[in-house]
């Protein structure tokens, strides 16, 4: 490999790694800010959070890789253009296309790897991520006592402490209501002090109480009157222990097989299989609706007949109601027709909801199928935009290249998001919706490549000023000639 190729590869790989890490960090922070309320105060182990972050990094690869490709390519060729290294390369007899050949090959490898990743690895990551995030969001917050406020998060108990220590393990002036039997006043416990600690297996919370009184009342369930046979017990204690079941606060892992049929957790082969099965369901519903609706339609056309029966001879008519139906039977014919229409409408309404479910599934399967390919093609497209754009603007660093990269990526992201949403709503074909951004921006990539190959000063303000001055002189000259004539 020639030194020019090594120079361009080294100039590209370093900015790419830096940009990829920065973009991934920003996207990860956005994810944490979005789910911050579901993560704080639930007592997760560090490895659970690291597992969630790792899965999220893999999920965000579909957005981080194209953006990093665009930004790093603009920075690379902007730096080469700013330091006049592109001029030296062209002076040595190498065109920009020939100098970019190994870099194009490297980007193609990235695109192929992203396709394999989206087909084989990303469905598994989505499955792990979806099930873990579901369990994390459904886990109850840790048991926390606030001074002077009743806490009813433990099933069957209401606990209030007037004060607590700085570390939160010692509670003062406790009041505990035990209403597991359905009556909130049948068991009350008062204590001056209580020390909280967890059991060895963390399944129970043990509360050691000191200097307290326990009140117990045995009342018949749903009794409205006082019964003299009921017993009221009060006893004092110097120290006792109460155990609370903390099973409701444990994070329970959901069976991953419940999420396997989701469209984002399927590879290409599975998507084809589920699409075919879904199409069979749609065909079955359509045939069922046609068969039921057919019973409410009377065919009087001479061209329609069942295979088992001969066609009936029907006279030609211009208006069936006036030419064929007698005047005294027209009202009943119209009433029968309206009744048949109502019956057909009922058939359609009964099957409409079920049919829509399968149609939405079909759209989602097609969108996810094409998403596997758009990730790889978007890497190539944004590189084809960024590389010639950097050679044209000839500015390196993190200033202008970052601004330009963000603008073009926002254009790409907005187009793809709006088109995908339209495809999900059914107003746009899924194929067109997933490829819309690539179709719109491909001519721009070809235009920028042509301009960079011809050394065009596309962003040179002075050139535009000269063009405007020439146009103004031409317009004023034509205007003066007309006035002279």
Please outline what is shown here.
This protein has 485 residues and is of the alpha+beta class. The chain has helices at 3-34, 36-39, 46-59, 61-82, 85-91, 96-99, 101-138, 268-294, 320-323, 330-393, 400-425, 430-453, 461-484; strands at residues 157-164, 170-178, 187-198, 204-218, 231-245.
Q: What does this protein structure show overall?
A:
With about 475 residues, the chain is of the alpha+beta class. The chain contains 13 helices and 5 strands. It has a 5-stranded antiparallel beta sheet with strand order 1-2-3-4-5, with no helix packed on it. A hairpin with a 5-residue loop joins strand 3 (about 185-200) and strand 4 (about 205-220). Helix 10 runs antiparallel to helix 11 (about 400-425). It starts with a helix and ends with a helix.
Biggest beta sheet attributes: 5 strands, antiparallel
Pairing-aware structural class of the strands and helices? alpha+beta
Number of strand segments: 5
Average pLDDT across residues? 79
Element-level helix/strand string: HHHHHHHEEEEEHHHHHH
What characteristic shape results from the CA principal axes? flat
Beta content: 5-15%
Distance between the termini: 68 Å
Please list the strands of the largest sheet in the order they lie side by side: 1-2-3-4-5
How much is the radius of gyration in Å? 37 Å
Unreliable spans are none
Q: Quickly count the helices.
A: 13
Keywords: Cell membrane, Membrane, Transmembrane, Transmembrane helix
Membrane topology: Multi-pass membrane protein
Transmembrane segments: 12-33, 53-78, 99-122, 373-393, 400-419, 431-450
Pfam families: LptF_LptG
